[in-house]
Task: structure prediction
Amino acid sequence: MTERVLVWDLPTRVFHWLLAAAFAGAWLTGDSERWRDLHMMLGYSVAGLIVFRILWGFVGSRYARFRSFLFRPAELLAYLRSLATRSPRHYLGHNPAGSIAVFLLLGLGLVTALSGYAYFQEWGGEWLEEVHEAAAVAMLAVVGMHIAGVIASSLLHRENLVRAMITGRKLGESGQGIARRYGAVALLLLAAGTALWAWYPAGGEATGQVRAVQQEQRHDDERG
Ligand code: HEM
Ligand code: HEM
Result:
């Protein structure tokens, strides 16, 4: 391993840090009725980001493609076994253990957002709220393991993986890196997110109006 090569394209990095922020925000606002509008916007952002990432998993750059981190069970076992040795196997992209966390996080993020939306739309009973909460708790647990895994493999491989998720670069052989950053795709992702959030105050206002009408009706009822 001789030089720093580009591994994570810009869309993957932008996706990652926005997903972390949106998930953290949705988690923190879930309990409070006061923050419900914001909670839903953060949840839609999680869903939108994951939909983007799934598309990017098919058409994105080399290490962002799902094909590059779909491992057979035997390869996962060999990797886990190598962790106990002095020279654990090194992967330039996701390692087999990390890739499981990636798929779990994408799946749980979608289930959490969908169940939240279904509950809000009253598509089912109270059980949807249970599913929503359980999916969110499960995702938080995987996030915890994900962060522990990132720290552990950073120490094990003596490579700062958090910095790699910021700069996109990891230690590798020349020629193994990707050639382009795909900045235009990252801009498109940011533009779509900005449009969604620019629309948010309008949505909030509408909800506010609904509340005002409901309050007026309640006053009318009280007056009899
Ligand atoms: C994907 C990211 C999301 C996360 C991590 C998340 C997390 C949570 C959490 C932790 C709660 C509190 C559960 C409880 O104590 O009962 C909650 C409640 C709620 N969430 Fe989400 N949520 C997400 C997305 C959404 C979306 C997209 C919607 C709807 C469009 C939504 C609608 C709701 C509603 C209506 C409640 C209140 C349930 C109740 O009445 O107790 N959530 N969410
Ligand atoms: C809070 C919620 C978080 C979520 C939902 C999340 C989710 C993800 C996902 C889906 C990936 C796969 C990236 C891709 O291929 O598109 C990933 C990778 C990664 N995440 Fe996170 N992440 C979170 C927080 C963090 C934090 C706080 C850190 C830093 C301590 C971190 C560091 C990394 C690193 C270094 C990778 C690349 C792992 C590798 O080298 O294989 N993540 N994360």
